[in-house]
Amino acid sequence: MNVKIDSRKIEKGDTFVALRGIDHDGHAYIRQAIENGAAKIICEEGSYEVETCIVEDTRAYLVNYLKDTYYDKISKLKLIGITGTNGKTTSAFLLHQMLNKLGRKCGYIGTIGFYVGEKIRSLANTTPDIYDLYAILLQCLSLGCEYVVMEVSSQGLANHRVETLQFDYAVFTNLTQDHLDFHKTMERYALAKQELFRMLKPSGKAIINYDDSYKHYFLLEENENVTFGFTGGDFNVALDAADKEHTEFSVQCPAFTQNFSTNLIGTYNIYNLMASVVILTLEQFDSATIAQAAAALTLPKGRTECIHTGNNLIMVDYAHTPDAMSKVLTAARALTSGSIYVVFGCTGERDRDKRAKMSAIACKHADYVIMTHDDPHYEDQAQIYHDMTSGLSYDNYEIVHDRKDAIRKGISLLDTDDILLILGKGHEEFIVCRDKRIPFNDMNVARQCLSERRTPTAARICQSA
User: Fold this and answer.
1) Is 3-56 a domain of CATH 3.40.1390.10?
2) Regarding the domain delimited by 305-464, which CATH topology (the fold level of the hierarchy) does it fall under?
3) Which of 200, 219, 225, 346 is the least buried, fewest Cβ under 10 Å from its Cβ?
């Protein structure tokens, strides 16, 4: 695109649009854009030596320009938007993976980055702003994609990051407490997500989790709605068997009854997989083909990511809400007769109300809990720990201030047929503390701690060095 919003990326002959943002004002970078070769400036004030167009709202201008110039091209893509509190990343990534397995080239846009089969790059937001989205969608077209599946966050919708786009499918996974620091109430949170279901193409379809108590916000009369769930729905699911390495379930719908066996574990991951089952069915794939594609899948990094160590299991998961934590713990309990240990923390400067709830869930369902740092940002960590333990009626926990030490302690507790859950950060590569981004990845640290445990002499040498 020869229209740019970042003055650093301007090439000779480009047009620079000066956007006003929360932290930066593009008008401050007009001079740099001109020095870098901008031939035209779109702004709300000022006069410059190159062609200058004054508009009332530069963002509105940009949105209209993108739509008028590029929407006909990107409308050729089958666009699938997935929203919900938990499961967006896994649901989207599984569908991206299965479509590619089945020979239908598909892109993925979301929390863990931009993928077309393999990862192309990381993204700043789960749902990028509209300029970046258009650029990514155009790149998907140039790479030969037929489909693009993307996570659509409530904040992305509230901030109009997907305006002008229309979707072939809109998927609702679930709604539970999160982001109330932004939305304030669950109703406002639900209504923000509801906007996705008003953005369907005329032939588009809404895919809804029948079992979720907030489903009525998304079953809009004007849409063609298709539901799935364990308690009812057009695609009715029954769990048949599960262990630490696979799950067997069956699906009954008007088109078929089909048995599935997958390497995914946890009922919540079957919910995540069902969005793919429904959409692939609607895309005219037969049930046996879908079942074969579902048999061996790779989860996104940091989503139920497992290390088998002896007969014990270490699981790293992004679960950072009360509901997600409850579901992971319930799944873990179904997989073992041994003990369950949890390492987790709570993010600073985010929904404080959920902290004590998460601690109570962890202590109730686990044998022992190790509370530690997550991303404190600029909040006092002592305040976070106070919120986590305030009113807690359990005593099966301790606080370990260093997250690596907390993981090491959790691993040391493993005995026979036990499970250690390391929750909250998942795929993330940093701990954010004030203005510092400290390299840290839960899975890498767990492997390192296991290696130290297996070779204590080498570990002591490394530590002394």
Assistant:
1) yes
2) Protein-Tyrosine Phosphatase; Chain A (3.90.190)
3) 219
Structure tokens at 171: 């998927």
Whole-prediction pTM: 0.84
Instruction: Tell me the per-residue pLDDT of 154-180, one tens digit each, with 9 for 90 and over.
Output: 888 988 899 999 999 999 999 986 666
Q: Please report which residue ranges of 75-216 form alpha helices under DSSP H.
A: 88-101, 130-142, 154-158, 180-183, 186-194
Q: Which residue has the tokens 């992305």?
A: 156
Q: 240-250 pLDDT, tens per residue?
A: 998 888 999 99
Domains of the chain, residue spans: 3-56, 69-294, 305-464
- What distance in Å separates the CA atoms of residue 325 and residue 365, rounded to the nearest whole number? 10
Q: Which residue positions form the known binding site for ATP?
A: 84-90
DSSP 243-270: -SS-EEEEEEETTEEEEEEES--SHHHH
Round to whole Å and give the CA distance between 407 and 423: 10
- pLDDT < 70 regions, the chain: 177-183, 455-465
The answer to whether 295 and 261 are in contact (CB under 8 A) is yes
Dihedral in degrees, nearest 10, Cα atoms 276, 282, 284, 289: 30
User: Which residues contribute to the annotated binding site?
Assistant: 7, 84-90, 125-127, 153, 161
Architecture of domain 69-294: 3-Layer(aba) Sandwich (3.40)
Measured distance CA(334)–CA(206) in Å, rounded: 32
Handedness of CA 413, 419, 424, 430 (dihedral sign): positive
